[in-house]
């Protein structure tokens, strides 16, 4: 299998995996229908390939045309400050391939217990699943409010003893600020309030906009609570602060 064009910015380790997998393919006549199946299976065995993107078709007289795209990384799983796994948007664990600088650009979720999930499997830990669901919301907070959200974690008051339950979340910033966000807008957590009783995503976002207008980049705050009926603000000394007008 010859590669006319690899996906842009494909990690070299992933490209090497593809080369090895292609080299292991047995020779087949171009008109052998089994050849298409083998090429397709070869691509589907690579955990970084998005299976929904794979298309294999004859391209006579040159050979077989295979098109595909890599899965999109979304967040990393970290333990003790070290990345132990990279997770795609669909929850699949991706193989190693990104350097430390590239990995540092992704939001992190902690590995609270057990071994890291293996490449190719779907994450099953409730905290990791809920963090993945909330990742785009955390990215919005980071980019729109210009705050350094680096981590999605269990909200400070949600017990670890609630095993198997997707927890309410906080977004943690590099300066220690905790934004208590609650469950993601798509959460199916059984312990979360019913959808109609939750603080809507739009309202949480509007609350943060108003708070950021009074406290640019949320500086001077240690905790911002937007997922409760009444929002709360806390200063660097832990003292509760008055809310901006309109909240």
How do the strands and helices of this protein lay out in sequence?
Elements: H1 12-23, H2 33-44, E1 55-59, E2 63-67, E3 73-79, E4 82-88, E5 93-94, H3 100-103, E6 107-110, H4 126-145, E7 149-154, E8 169-173, E9 178-182, H5 201-214, E10 221-225, E11 232-235, E12 240-241
Parallel strand pairs: 3-6, 9-10
Antiparallel strand pairs: 1-2, 3-4, 4-5, 7-8, 8-9, 10-11, 11-12
Describe this structure as you would to a colleague:
It is a single chain. With 247 residues, this protein is α+β, with helices and mostly antiparallel strands. It folds into 2 domains: 12-67, no CATH class; 73-241, Rossmann fold. 25% of the residues lie in helices and 23% in strands. The strands form 3 sheets. The protein has a 6-stranded mixed sheet, with helices on one face. It has a 4-stranded mixed sheet with strand order 5-4-3-6, with helices on one face. It starts with 11 loop residues before the first helix and ends in a 6-residue tail after the last strand. 30% of the residues are buried. The mean pLDDT is 89.
């Amino acid at each position: 299998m010859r590669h006319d064009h690899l996906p842009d910015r494909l990690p070299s380790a992933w490209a090497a995996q593809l080369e090895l997998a292609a080299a292991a393919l047995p020779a087949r006549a171009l008109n052998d229908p089994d050849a298409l199946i083998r090429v397709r299976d070869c691509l589907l065995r690579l955990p970084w390939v998005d299976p929904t993107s794979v298309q294999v078709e004859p391209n006579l007289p040159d050979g077989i045309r295979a098109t595909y795209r890599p899965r999109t990384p979304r967040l990393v799983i970290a333990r003790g400050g070290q990345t132990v796994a990279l997770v795609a948007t669909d929850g699949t664990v991706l193989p190693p391939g990104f350097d430390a600088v590239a990995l540092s650009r992704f939001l992190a979720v902690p590995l609270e217990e057990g071994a890291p999930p293996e490449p190719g499997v779907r994450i099953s830990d409730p905290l990791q699943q809920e963090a993945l669901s909330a990742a785009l919301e955390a990215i919005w907070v980071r980019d729109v409010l210009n705050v350094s959200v680096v981590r999605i974690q269990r909200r400070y008051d949600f017990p670890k003893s609630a095993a198997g339950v997707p927890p309410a979340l906080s977004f943690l910033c590099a300066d220690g600020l905790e934004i208590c966000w609650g469950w993601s807008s798509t959460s199916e957590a059984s312990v979360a309030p019913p959808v109609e009783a939750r603080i809507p995503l739009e309202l949480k976002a509007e609350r943060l906009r108003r708070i950021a207008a009074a406290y640019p980049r949320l500086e001077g705050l240690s905790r911002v609570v937007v997922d409760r009926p009444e929002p709360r603000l806390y200063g660097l000394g832990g003292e509760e602060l008055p809310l901006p007008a309109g909240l």
